[in-house]
Predict the 3D structure of the following.
Amino acid sequence: MTDIVGEWEVVLERVRAAASAFGTAATEHELREQNARLSGPSGELTALMKRMKEVPGDKKRELGQRSNAVKQELERAFADALAALARKQREAELSGPAIDPSLPGRNVKLGRLHPITQVTYRLLDVFASLGFDVADGPEIDLHKHNFDMLGFPPDHPATDMQDSFFIAKEGSNEVDRGALLRTHTSTIQIREMLKRKPPLAVVAPGAVFRRDDDATHSPMFFQIEGFVVDEGVTFAQLKGVLTRFLRALFGEETPVKFRPSYFPFVEPGGEIDIYRNGRWMEVLGCGMIHPVVLENVGYDPQKVSGFAFGMGVDRMAMLLYGIDNIKQLYENDVRLLTQF
Ligand code: FA5
């Protein structure tokens, strides 16, 4: 029993001695650390006071009072040392080189939106003005959203490991073919149609990933998907909306070419090229949503029909800004970025 009382006295003395050394701290951080070692949540004095129940009854009151007094002493010493440090710093500032308030301020360089983001907003604005909603989806998605429900047959080359980035199983190099980095934003068609009922007109921007790499192809690039589903939607409407859109963006005189093309999830399907800067460039794929896709999401293809399109935002940026290599959009050279 006497042990705890003796021990108590020793610790109190040690804490007081340590507090008297507060003045030696060179920085506020150091001072706060010293203080925390004594009275912080796991400080020495705090730990001591938690042991009060071990103290014999007749000593409790006295040791309690003395401990509180030391605690108050500690608080005072800490406040004094803190004030002294602030004073010292202020004195150093005042006796240092004079500040010239008439000097011009430092220029803060203003950032701006990346050209791809700017173009995305421009494209979405046109579609918003045509009455489309904007939707979003995850960059890692399921094989069934990216391929199966869109009517890709299981052996379609686009599902090859050479074309798509599949995700390795956790902790192994084995590939999990159930999930991948989406290869197109058509995943959002499926996701939105599963969630909502027609009529709907939706555009959905996002990053997509493929094993592609040359002057006009990047392994990560951006697409905007669009689709309209309602009773009586026709190919003429598809042509009307997309021509309107491209002319609003590139100018009313822009040559626009519809070519037949194949995508498993549309029938008929097509691609659109536009003529800019002396060449034709493919900008989007499109078509009437395949009845099988409508069935896959629980719609009745006898009642509703729809059209869909997917465009490369990078390609649009290249055409709008006259950039001839897609890589320039990703090098983030400020000499290029500040031109937009
Ligand atoms: C698709 O991705 C289809 N999902 C588009 C679609 C949607 C068709 C709805 C029908 C209905 P495609 O693989 O052609 O289609 O890509 C669409 C556009 O993305 C292309 O026209 C092109 O502008 C752009 N693109 C394709 N690959 C790349 C790439 N590696 N880098 C940059 N842009 C690309």
Remarks:
- Strands lie at 133-134, 140-142, 166-168, 175-181, 200-209, 220-230, 256-260, 266-276, 279-289, 305-312.
- The pocket of adenosine-5'-[phenylalaninyl-phosphate] is lined by residues 184, 186, 210, 212, 217-218, 221, 223, 225, 263, 266, 269, 282-287, 308-312, 314-315, 326 (CB under 6 Å).
